[in-house]
Amino acid sequence: MKNVLIAIVVLGLIAFLYYRNNPKVDFKEDTVDGIHFQKGNWQQALDLAKKENKVVFLDIYATWCGPCKQLKKYTFADKSAGDFFNTNFVNMALDGEQEEGAVLAQKFGIEAYPTLMFVTPEGELITKSPGFRTASDLINLGQQILDTRN
User: Fold this and answer.
1) pLDDT tens per residue, range 19-78
2) What is the SS3 assignment for 78-95?
3) Most distant pair of Cα atoms in the chain: their distance
4) Mean pLDDT for the chain?
């Protein structure tokens, strides 16, 4: 009986950790307070960046990727990240294994998901950063990009 209880607790812990690290997300939907991603194509994002004199923040993700899901669920949904990125950047998120996202992943040499990039309105890469980031860490990275552009 004791072994059964231990097995149940261990399995419960494994399930909890799995679902915590792989939350269910809809990559096409934005939260109200978080970062709002453009719904058009890459060229439209570049055109908007030119018009607004902003840098493009590009998230290349994969739908099966745990850290990508965590970014979407927690970091991109954060109000402070939303306030900062919606004000200072044109935001775009693309699946690196589908259509336009796959083309850009190849163009920019993406080797891991997620990869967060900052791109000029002319389409030139400023910097790329693979992996998960907290909201405050992402804001700090964005601020560094703004500081170097001014």
Assistant:
1) 555 667 888 889 999 999 999 999 999 999 999 999 999 999 999 999 999 999 999 999
2) CHHHHHHHHHHEEEEEEE
3) 68
4) 91
**CA end-to-end distance (rounded Å), the chain:** 67
Helices (H) and strands (E) in the chain, counts: 6, 4
Q: Does the CA dihedral 65-67-71-72 come out positive or negative?
A: positive
CA 76 to chain centre: 7
CB 121 within 8 A of CB 96: no
**Upstream peptide bond of 121 is cis (omega within 30 degrees of 0):** no
Give pTM, 2 decimals: 0.85
Rg (CA), the chain: 18
Q: Render pLDDT for 22-35 as a digit per residue (tens, 0 to 9).
A: 667 888 889 999 99
Tell which residue, 131, 136, 116, 13, has the closest CA to residue 65: 131
* 123 three-class SS: coil
Sheet holding 115-119, edge to edge: 89-95, 55-61, 115-119, 125-130
DSSP characters over 29-92: ---SSSPPPP-S-HHHHHHHHHHHT-EEEEEEE-TT-HHHHHIIIIITT-HHHHHHHHHHEEEE
